Amino acid sequence: MESKNKIALVTGGSRGLGKDMALRLADKGIDVIITYNTSADEAQKVVDQIKQGGRKAAALQLNTGEIKSFDTFIEKVKELLNAEFGTDRLDFLVNNAGIGGYKLIEEVTEDFFDELLNVHYKGVYFLTQKTLPVMNDGGGIVNVSSGLTRVSLPRSSAYASMKGAVEVFTRYLAKELGARGIRANVIAPGAILTDFGGGHLRASEQSQKMVSDITALGRPGEADDIGGVVAFLCTDDAKWVNGQRIEVSGGMLV
């Protein structure tokens, strides 16, 4: 079964960056499945907004840190594709879901490290692996990294290390999936004013000033600075962009 419309799966699509990614994908004419961890009501609002714009959309619960749940999740995706979208394949995977975690190296515990590892690297690796059999050839994968892989700020060693691993993984995806025409790229947002990481940037004028001072465009990012770049990577306009890290930071410490 082939759907006329392209379909994207966006993890963590109920709020923040993921929400904007889902909405901007829909603006490009792409149908969207979003996942949420706990925010079912917020996810439904995103689905409703996309449907009001004339695209198909649906939401599924997923904790991207629980790798053993992925087989069941993929079965639910297949059922949803058949029931709601009239197909058995999707075209794009956007690995966006994440959690914040900020500690000095001497304060990092194994539990803290493992939680970040599962969500930001192991989860991304194995969810991608499990999704590949239900992806159409000629599609694409967009992983979400961080400006913190290039710019080192205290308290982000564990988080940034996981994101660095995702950047390497993305290049290997591009290499191994090229035969299927599947592109893989990674975006690296700078400091963004969302509720990510407890909204620590949004709550601190001092941090916002620091970010503004080191950013060429003179301000922290907003969620709507990011989603359009992901949407672009899921269109034919980006058909020759592959294996790339695109930093979306307004020129932070250029």
Considering the chains and any ligands shown, give keywords for the structure.
254 residues, alpha/beta, Rossmann fold, seven-stranded parallel β-sheet, 17% strand
Q: Can you characterise this structure?
A:
With 254 residues, the protein is α/β, with parallel strands linked by helices. The chain has helices spanning 16-27, 40-52, 70-85, 110-131, 157-177, 205-213, 227-233, and strands at residues 7-10, 31-36, 57-61, 90-95, 135-144, 183-189, 245-248. A seven-stranded parallel beta sheet has the order 3-2-1-4-5-6-7, with helices on both faces. Strand 2 (31-36), helix 2 and strand 3 form a beta-alpha-beta unit. Helix 1 runs parallel beside helix 2 (40-52). The protein starts with 6 loop residues before the first strand and ends in a 6-residue tail after the last strand.
Uncertain residue ranges? none
DSSP summary, beta strand count: 7
Under CATH, the topology can be stated as: Rossmann fold
Cα(first) to Cα(last) distance is 47 Å
Strand content: 15-25%
- Major sheet summary line: 7 strands, parallel
- Structure annotation, total helices: 7
Tell me the series of helices and strands, N- to C-terminal.
EHEHEHEHEHEHHE
CATH class: Alpha Beta
CATH architectural group: 3-Layer(aba) Sandwich
Please give the domain count.
1
Question: Using only CA atoms, what is the Rg?
Answer: 17 Å
Structural class: alpha/beta
Helix content: 25-40%
CATH superfamily: NAD(P)-binding Rossmann-like Domain
Shape: globular
Strand order of the largest sheet: 3-2-1-4-5-6-7
Summarize model confidence as the mean pLDDT: 95
